[in-house]
From TrEMBL:
SUPFAM superfamilies: MFS general substrate transporter. Its main location: membrane. Belongs to the major facilitator superfamily. Sugar transporter (TC 2.A.1.1) family. Keywords: Cell membrane, Membrane, Sugar transport, Transmembrane, Transmembrane helix, Transport. It comes from Aquiflexum balticum DSM 16537. The chain crosses the membrane at residues 12-33, 53-73, 82-105, 111-129, 141-162, 190-209, 270-294, 306-330, 337-357, 363-388, 400-420, 432-450. This is MFS transporter, sugar porter (SP) family. It is a multi-pass membrane protein.
Amino acid sequence: MEQKVEYNQRFIWLVSLTAALGGFLFGYDWVVIGGAKPFYEPYFNITSATDQGWGTSSALVGCMLGAILCIILSDRLGRKRLLIFSGFLFSLSAVGTALADSFWWFNFYRIAGGIAMGIALNLSPLYIAEIAPPEKRGMFVTINQLLIMIGVLLAQVINWQISLLDTLMPDAATFEQIAASWNGNYGWRWMFGVEVIPAMLFFILMFFVPESARWLIKNNEETKARKILQRIGGEFYENQAVTEIKTTLRTEDLARVNFKELLNKRVVKFLAIGVFLAFLQQWSGVNVIIYYAADIFQAAGYTLKQMMLNIVVIGSVMVLSVFITIFTVDKFGRKKLLLIGTSAMAFLYLLIGYSFYVDQGGWVVVFLVLANVMFYSFTLAPLLWVVLSEIFPTRIRGAAMSIAALAHWVGNFTLTYSFPTIKENLGWANNFWLYGVICAIGFVVLYLVLPETKGKSLEQIERELG
């Protein structure tokens, strides 16, 4: 009879939550720009669609650089060192952006924060996946997504509350009135600056967590790896895990990174799936709703202060939706949830586009947007990182996942930067219908090619996928 493993739940939770702080900081940094946008744009006198797109998306250039760093270094230096470095960059970016006196420096520090975002969003779920027990891996990786969404919500609440401190700014303030207001000069700075507190906490705590045992074994540090695995699940789990990890590593793979492995036909197949899923998550359009929520709700007829509250409601829905994933991902699997999400979003985009087409604004648009955000938040948002952390071989997992993460950021940047121009040329209705078509295509492709990975060890998945 197979021996039952008693896991050290307290240790696994503490380590996973510490790593997931990287996800929290990503969520905050990712979304704070949306609430600050109505105030820093008048301050810097940003009026062109090009500058608006650059201010919103400059951090995404850093995200791409962070993903490239992970491709080169994550399998050489490990997960822990790069996550510590991201904590430092998050802290630097928070202070630098808050103190920026020109649009150039504003974007410089946003790019620095973007590098941290690119590292954290890539390596936090990967690290957790390599620490967590197989039967609970989906849940633990989704905890990272939960903290991302809590970071999103906190950024939106802080943006909203800081904006309310300016009691002299009119509800329907003009561009010039905002530029002269407290919010236009100082409020947006505090929105960025308060991030330094959790950023420093993440930076310090990451020094106290262990390195990934799988990475240690791959780099000929088996003794250290065994101590970590024994602490996770005892001696039986330690021996079982070490045996499984070694069976997926050839002798020549130890202590080196073979980037030629990325050209292996089987690896290329799953890289293609990962890259497609990464682009689909971005071009499903929800990030446009997050980054440009103020513009969308303004087009639907809301005032500035009403828009700030609506943005907070979006964050609340995102947080609550992740709990659906936590309680279903290891029961129903990754593929089924992704198919539910893409089909529902395609239908909702059809309705959102129609609402703008017939000029039906107000609560109807808010309701449809919230429903769309809900389906995204418990399917595409968390499950991209669950799937990416599972489908690649141990010996090249860091680099392969980083390539998919780079595709994620390229998709995010192209979507966010191009949105103002696309919206001007296509209009609101056609823009949302475009995202609906993309979600429908995503449904078909995922149905045909995506394997199911729930409940299997990373090594078992690797053997089954070839």
